[in-house]
């Protein structure tokens, strides 16, 4: 439940995107020959393994060696020091004695705290949920992998398991968060017949599968510049209607 929610000077896509980001809901697509499915979720159970064989070996290219099976040929892994605690606070004038706080801490770096007010919630349970989502958003990018593969089935929102990497602790299950695929076959066009053979590249970014994924809050929220006039509305026959808190309801001219 939101106290007030409005689409203002933004596209439908931006409006929906920023609401999903605030709630920690992600989405990805399943592509089929006869249809495409939009999948939305907020937990790891929404993800599926990539098509075909989901266990992909790491094979570093060497002169004279050719891998017969799909493999990962470059892989980099980074780790950041990020906030390990999120604290949110708000105030509900209808319940002034209620201490509206929401806290969530990680296992490490709890002294690096993100504190925000107003937290945009009216009940303590909602505050705890939002703090959890915010912390998971920060923790989701704490450890990230990136690489390139010959596998044609990689896609964002799906997971795979890497095997045979020289460093053993990197051999585990990963969730693909970004994927870029490019291919060319110039020889099929008569005017490009002499330009060489086909090319294919598949690069990706991923996070450990045991880390909950939350989308970054990157969609900008519109800002109302200056003051606006509106029409006071209420029950028919009432000159000026106020509720028990002395508030009036208004309708903007653009609504």
UniProtKB/TrEMBL annotation:
<dbReference type="InterPro" id="IPR037026">
    <property type="entry name" value="Vgr_OB-fold_dom_sf"/>
</dbReference>
<dbReference type="InterPro" id="IPR017847">
    <property type="entry name" value="T6SS_RhsGE_Vgr_subset"/>
</dbReference>
<dbReference type="Pfam" id="PF05954">
    <property type="entry name" value="Phage_GPD"/>
</dbReference>
<dbReference type="InterPro" id="IPR006533">
    <property type="entry name" value="T6SS_Vgr_RhsGE"/>
</dbReference>
<protein>
    <recommendedName>
        <fullName>Type VI secretion system tip protein VgrG</fullName>
    </recommendedName>
</protein>
